[in-house]
Amino acid sequence: MMLSSSYAEADKDQKKIDSLLDKSLALSRVNFIEGIEAGNLALTLSTKNKDQRYIAESLRILGVNYHNVNKRDSAINYYLKSLTIYTKTKDKKGIAKVYNNLGNSYKYFNNEKAFAYFRKTIKLAEDESLYNLIASAHLSIGTIYTYNKTYEIASHEYYKALSIFKNIKDKKGELISFQNIGTNQFYLNQFDDAKLNLNKAYKLAKELNFKNSLSGINLTLSDINIATHQYDKAKEHINEGLNLAKELYDEKLIYDFTIAAYELEKKQGNYKAALENLEKIHSKDSINHTENVSNILNLHEEQQQTLQKQKEYEIALAKQEKNWIIMVAAIIVSILSLILILILHKNKKKAEKSNIRLKKLNEEISIQKENLNVMNQKLEDIIAERTKDLINKNQKLSEYSSHLSHQIRGPIATLKGLIMLSEDDLMGEKECIQQMKKCVEDIDEQIMDINIALHDPTRKGLSKK
C-alpha cells in the first residue's frame, strides 16, 4: 500500500514538473521573470526527486528563457550544464535539443561554432528521427547565410527545411520556410518567384492567424510591387500590413510601412502625400532623438545619485568613527587597562575591515563612473549624427518647397498668359501651341530635375550645379 502511494506521489510530481516546464517555455518570449520562476520551481522539484532527465530539461528551458532576453552568456551556461547531464545519461534526444539551442546562441556571434552545433544537431536528430529538429536546424543555418548575404546558399537550406516540414505536415514550419525563401528571392531581384513563395506564406499565415507573419509578408510584398511598378497591389499590402502593425502595437513595423508608403507615393509622383509620409518619418526620428536625450539625462541623474549616496555613506562613517572615539574615551576612564587594550584591538580589526570595504566600494564606483562616461560619449556621438541627418532632411524639404514655388510657378504663369492671349485672339494658334509646348517641357524638365536631385546623394541641393 505504501509502495503504491509512493508511485502515485512520484507521478503527481512528474505531472507538476511537466506543467511547470510547459509554462516556462510558453512564457520565455512574453514574460521573462515568470518564465524563470516557473523554470526554477521545476528545477527545485526535479532536484528534490533526483530525476536527472527533468533536471537537464529544466536547465535547458532556463537557458531558453535567458536566450530570449539576449542574456547569451547565462543561456550558454545553463545549456552546458544541461548537456553534461544529458551526456552522462546518454539521452540523444536531449543532447540534440541542447546542440540546437547552443547553435542558436552562437548564430550571430560565431558562425563556425553555430554551424558545428547545428551539424551535430542534424546528425543526432537523424539517428533519433526527430524531423522537426532537423528542419529547424536547416532553417537556422539558412538564417546565418541570409545574415551574411549569401542568399542562394541560404535558400538551399530553406528548401531542405520546407521539404521536411511538408512531410511532417508542420504548417508553421512551412510558413516560415516560404517566407524566408521569398524574402531571399526578393534580395536577389527574382521578383516573380519571390511573389509566388510569399503568397504561399501569406495564405498559411491567414489560415493560422499569425498576425506578425502577415504583417512582415505584406511589407516585403509591398516592396516587390513598388519595384515592379504594380502600385495598386503595393497600396493594398501597405494598408493591410499597417493596420496589422497598429493592432499589434509594433512601432518598428509601423515605421517601416510609413517608409514604404513614402516610397510608393514618390514613385507615383504624389509628392504631397509623399511629403506627408516623410513628415511622419521625420517626426518618429525626432521622437527617437528625444528619447536618446532623455536617456542621457537619466544616466546623468543616476550618476549624481550614486555620488550622493557615496557622500552620505562617508558622512555616516565619519559620525560612526567619532562615536567610537567618544565611547572608547568613556571606557578608558571607567575600566581597566587590559579591557582597554582588548577593545582597541577589536576596533582596529573593524577599522581594517571597513577600510577594505570602502576601498572596494570606491573601486566599484570608479568603474561605474568610467562606464557611464563611455556610454555618455557614445550617446552624444549618436545624437550628433542624428541631429546632422535631421538638419540635412529639413534643408532638403525647404529647398523642395522653395523650388516648387519659384521654378515651376514661372512656366505655369506663362501658360496662363498664353491661354489669355489665345482667348483674346492676340496670338496665332500655331505660335501659341509652340509656346505652350515649351512651357510644358520646362515644367517636365524641372520635375525630372527635382526627382533626380532627391535621389542623388552627391547633390547637396535641388538646383543644378
UniProtKB/TrEMBL annotation:
<dbReference type="InterPro" id="IPR036097">
    <property type="entry name" value="HisK_dim/P_sf"/>
</dbReference>
<dbReference type="InterPro" id="IPR011990">
    <property type="entry name" value="TPR-like_helical_dom_sf"/>
</dbReference>
<keyword id="KW-0812">Transmembrane</keyword>
<dbReference type="Pfam" id="PF13424">
    <property type="entry name" value="TPR_12"/>
</dbReference>
<dbReference type="InterPro" id="IPR003661">
    <property type="entry name" value="HisK_dim/P_dom"/>
</dbReference>
<keyword id="KW-0472">Membrane</keyword>
<dbReference type="InterPro" id="IPR019734">
    <property type="entry name" value="TPR_rpt"/>
</dbReference>
<keyword id="KW-0175">Coiled coil</keyword>
<protein>
    <recommendedName>
        <fullName>histidine kinase</fullName>
        <ecNumber>2.7.13.3</ecNumber>
    </recommendedName>
</protein>
<feature type="transmembrane region" description="Helical">
    <location>
        <begin position="324"/>
        <end position="344"/>
    </location>
</feature>
<keyword id="KW-1133">Transmembrane helix</keyword>
<feature type="coiled-coil region">
    <location>
        <begin position="344"/>
        <end position="385"/>
    </location>
</feature>
